Amino acid sequence: MTTANDIIESGRSARLRPAGNAAVKPAQQPAGPFEVAAAKPSARDALVTGLLVIYPAFAAVAAILAGLFLAGASSV
């Protein structure tokens, strides 16, 4: 494994490009998911989205009711 001391002792220096040189070519394809064409929503997508929204709401109400029942305040 090469260490910093090995590089310093060998006398090698970093080779930098002059400022006038052209930069490296940019990639032809953009990075990330920004240019991906979205698929047309299906009924399955709507069902999953509905479950993701509705299920936590029902779970919260059920947890509150269970807490009231266990605390003995179900008659309120």
From TrEMBL:
Transmembrane segments: 52-73
Keywords: Membrane, Transmembrane, Transmembrane helix
Designated name of the protein: ABC transporter permease
